[in-house]
Amino acid sequence: MNPCDGYDASCVFCKIANREKDAEILESDEELCCFPDVKPGAQHHYLVIPRMHLGNCLSLRKEHVPLVQRMMEMGKAVLQKSHVTDLTDIRLGFHVPPFSSVPHLHLHVLAPASQMDPRSLRMYGPQSVWFLSADQLLKKLNSQKDSCPAEAKPSDS
Predict the structure, then answer these.
(1) Which of 17, 25, 119, 151 shows the greatest Cβ crowding within 10 Å of its Cβ?
(2) Which of 53, 64, 95, 106 is catalytic?
């Protein structure tokens, strides 16, 4: 695959997405790819990344909601292919800068959440200050106001 717009040659995740760096790709399509985390925090710990280089979760806007939803869908599909049957016992989310190790948007997919050790819970658990769940991110993005095109100014009436 040729590098697409938004490719960063210095980014390890861009290289994985474009198959320039070895990684076990578990699921892939034109927009996303999923592979195991090299430092797993749970029995099943995968990363879902967009092929196009995007910054961290705080750089996203309301128009990225469908992308985040597709990332979540792919993560759940990979869990199901890995025989995870209880999708209520999972963690889906993003590290908040400066706690993001790779500056390329990536969704952490972890299961079973109920069996995560204390270290993993500190990093990926509901009480973690540096981990934003995918649902929390979607709520934040959906609460953003739609931006008006410059030529469409609100009236003074």
Answers:
(1) 17
(2) 106
pLDDT per residue over 8-24, tens digit each? Answer: 889 999 999 999 999 99
pLDDT in tens, 103-135: 999 999 999 999 999 999 999 999 999 999 999
- Among left, alpha and beta (phi > 0; psi -120 to 50; other), residue 46 is beta
Torsion over CA of 83, 84, 85 and 90, rounded to 10 degrees? Answer: -170
CA nearest to 72, candidates 101, 44, 49, 40 = 49
DSSP of 45-89 = EEEEEESS----GGG--GGGHHHHHHHHHHHHHHHHHTT---TTS
Q: 12-142: what fold?
A: HIT family, subunit A (3.30.428)
Q: Residue ranges per domain, the chain?
A: 12-142
